[in-house]
Design a protein that fits this description.
The chain has about 100 residues and is mainly α. About 50% of the residues lie in helices and about 10% in strands. It has five helices and three strands, in the order αβαβαβαα.
Length: about 100
């Protein structure tokens, strides 16, 4: 059986385009820390739906600083697609999917 560090190393070594998607929740913080130790410049992708609380974004920023993450990329919805699909900003109330 491999330990977590070996599994992460293998995954990073075999990935075509290694990166991490992260919500910066508890489980992600541990994984971010472990990946940071092995690959300090690994890109971290964060999805900002535009509906996140300010506290969530400040928490993310605090963790980015504390963990020393140097390549966090925030992915946001395309404004044109958002206007077409959710013009009033209430899609989350009408369609949870």
């Amino acid at each position: 059986m491999s330990d977590a560090t070996q599994i992460i190393t293998t995954a990073l070594d075999t990935a075509t385009a290694p990166c991490l998607t992260s919500s910066f929740q508890a489980e992600c913080v541990v994984l971010n820390h472990m990946l940071r130790q092995q690959r300090p410049a690994l890109p971290v992708l964060f999805v900002d739906t535009g509906k996140l609380f300010g506290e969530t974004l400040r928490y993310r920023d605090t963790l980015v600083r504390r963990l020393g993450l140097t390549d966090v990329r925030t992915i946001e919805p395309d404004p044109a697609a958002l206007a077409a699909e959710d013009a009033d900003g209430g899609l989350w109330m009408r369609d949870a999917d």
